[in-house]
Amino acid sequence: MNEKTSYLVRPVKLSDMNQLIQLCTDHASYEGAGYAKGGKAKELSEYLFSNDSPVKCLVVSDEKNLMGYTTFMKQFSTWDARHYIYMDCLYLSPDARNQGLGKKLIECIVEYAHNERCTEIQWQTPTSNTRAIKFYKQNGANSKSKVRFFLEV
To answer: Is the pTM of this model over 0.90?
Structure first.
């Protein structure tokens, strides 16, 4: 990778949608999951750019291309009787890794959490994603074992 590459972390723009969809595709492939692109640009745009949507999206870009993204939202914990931030996705393309950008994305979410008076960020990653698990632990995160369920309705 070129040593002079400069990356910017910023909110997603409507003009980013095609590249964001490609990053989602790459992310799903990296985790060994399927991803159907059909209709996603329209659906994601409705959530990401709606004034009342809780979903936030930050992207990492160089001069021309998106190199990564994260999505997150504020949620409520009944047990703790408080809000927290749930990070749904964090993905960096291989060329953008090991540049401190994952940490920068998490720092941006931490800042958002502070502004929203949240004291915790939660997320999950597949147990097979050992690289991500190592990264998260190096950055102070602790893991809890749970089983995730899916119920189609």
So the answer is: no
